[in-house]
Amino acid sequence: MGLLSVKSRTNKPDLSRSSVTSYVVSEYQRSTMPAAPCSSSKATMPPAASSGSSTIIIAVILLILYFGMNLVFNIYNKWLFSGPLPAPIFVTATHQAFCFLGAVSAWMCVPDNWYKRTPLEGSAMISKLMIIPFGFCLNIGLNNMSLLYTTLALNQLIRSFAPVSVAFASFFIEGKSYSYPKQATLAMLVMGIVLGVSASPDFELLGFVICASSVLGSTLQIVLTGYFMGGQKVTLHVFDILLYTAIPCIAFLVPMAYLVGDFPKTAASFEANGAGKFLGLVLAGGSM
Question: Pick from 133, 140, 167: which is nearest to 242 by CA?
């Protein structure tokens, strides 16, 4: 297993979409770790059940916030890419710029007992961190691009295949096994997705391929990040993840934006909407 793990050191977690995902994964992993056996002299000590319950409650609340923000974010992006600013890769890069500015502000402004930057140690840690921006670009970048060619309903239907792809990848990469009820549930999910996609009147092959590729990117990001974050030797705050991966994400996304022709579309949108409205559209997405 690798040397990285994401773990919150504060009871005031960041609520950006990237940070919520990292925080929930880390809290879930911590809450499900088996407790060390007690010695006979401490056998009468009560178990820390309340701590585990509060962790689960926090994780559930953050998941609800994540899915709620994800829904609003996708609706906004679909509207944005269908009209005012049809440049999904460029917009995704601006979102990462906002994430970086937020992480830098936290690093420079908040007290050390709330957040203190964790320095990177060695090339191995840096190499493993680079998996996150690579998976992010495949996941979010391609998902945003697919909104140009699919309806929001079809996009979300295709992306609901993610639990199945993650289960397969976890089996082959990490050797995880699943019970028969879980396998049956995944099989029913696959049947539902196939029926829904095949019967969709909005089906378009190009949009389907791009969205399915984003699901594979999401799987790569989740499974490989979890695989390399198995150790406990180095602890990274969620702000550390944003601080260290946002710029590499932008470095991946800018060439992609150039290749798909986002720069001329961005310039045309700037001229058509004016500087004020254009910046407002970008700021609205970045604030999410």
Answer: 133
